[in-house]
Input
Amino acid sequence: MLALLAGLLFSLASGASWRGVRGQESPPGSRFVCTSLPPDAAPSGCPVPMPGGALPSEEELKATVLQLRETILQQKETIGNQRETIRELTGKLNRCENSPGPDGKSAAGGWRKELGKGKDTMGDLPRDPAQVIDQLSRTMQTLKDRLENLEHQLRANVSHAALPNELREMLQRRLGDLERQLLSKVAELEDEKSLLHNETSAHRQKTETALSALLERVSELEKGSSAFKSPDEFKVSLPLRTNYLYGKIKKTLPELYAFTVCLWLRSSASPGIGTPFSYAVPGQANEIVLIEWGNNPIELLINDKVAQLPLFISDGKWHHICITWTTRDGMWEAFQDGEKLGTGENLAPWHPVKPGGVLILGQEQDTVGGRFDATQAFVGEMSQFNIWDRVLKAEDIMSIANCSTNMPGNIIPWVDNNVDVFGGATKWPVETCEERLLDL
Output
C-alpha cells in the first residue's frame, strides 16, 4: 500500500499523464496505466472516469494528491508513536521479568509465551496500516494489563513480607504502650473518684452540722431569746472553710497613726487557721490583714507590707491575741494570752492607715468588701474583737487577757448591733471570760 502511494506521488510530480492501454479513449470502468512523459512533451491526458463520465481537472488531482500525502504522513507519525510506546513497555516488561514472583520464579516468564502463542508478534505484522494499528493497540493493552498485574503482585508480596517482621512488632509495641497508658489513666480516675467521694461526704457532714446550728439559732429567735445577757457577751461562729461565711463590722476606721487590735479566738483548722480579720480601702485591699495561710506562720499585713508573728493558736483552745502598731518606724508587738511573744519594726513606717474602708471578720478581701478566697477563710470562733487608736500598755493587755478588766475599743467596740453575719455564719452566747481562761 505504501509503495503504491509513493509511486503515484512520484509519477504526478514528474509530469506524468494518464493514457489508455491502446491509445484510445476507453469507456468508463476500463483499466488505465500511467506512462511517464518527457517534461517538455504535451500530455495527451489520461481519461479518468468521473461521475457522469467527466474527466477531473488538474486542480482536483493536486488536491487529491495533497490529501493522500497528508494521510500518509499522519499514518507514519501514528506508527512511529506506537513503536516508541511498544519499546517503552517492552523495556518495563524486561525489568519486571527479572523480579521474582510469588513462587520465587520469574513473574513474567510465561506471559510472553502466552501473549504471542509461541510466535514473535512484532515480526508478523500485516501490511495494512489499519490492521497494524489495531494489532499494536491490542498488544499494548495486553502489555499494560500484564504489567499492572505484576506490579500489584509485587506490592502485595512486599506488604505481606514486612508485616509479620517489622510492622507487626511496631504495632504490638504501640498497642502495649496505649494499653499501659489507658490502665494508668483509669487508676488515676478511680483515685480521684474516691477522693471526691470522701470530700463530698465530709462537706455534707459539715453542711448538715452548720444547718443544724442554724436551725437551733432560728428556734431561739422564734422563742424570743435572741437578746444576750450583755451586748458584748456573744461570739461569731464560722464552721466551714468557704468563701461565703463571714461577719462584717458596720463601723469603719478613721485615719490611724497607731492602733491596738485585741480578740479572743478558738480554732483547730489546718493547714492554717485562715484570716481572722481584714481591712480594705479603695486602692489597697491589704490595708490591715491578720492571716495564717497554709503552713506559713501568722502574718500581719499593713499597706501590703508583711511581718511574721510568733503566735501559735491552732490547738482548738481559746486564746487572747493582741497586736499593736505605730507608724513611727513601723514598730509592732504581738501578745498571746497576755504575754508579749515578739516585736519588730519597719512595718509600713510613716504610713497612716487610710479611713473609710470595710472591716471583714473571717475572710481576706481581694477587693473592698468582696472576692473572698475559700482557701484563706477563717474556720473557728471569735469574740471580743476591739480596736483602739493607740498602742495599749503591756499591763493593760495583761489585764484584759486575765479577765481583770473590761476595756472596749474606743474605735471599734465589740457590741451586738455593730456586727452582721452572712452566708451561714452565726452569733452565739459566749463562755464567760473565766471559762475561757480555764480552757487555756
Q: What stands out?
A: The radius of gyration is 57 Å. Residues 13 and 65 are 10 Å apart (CA to CA).
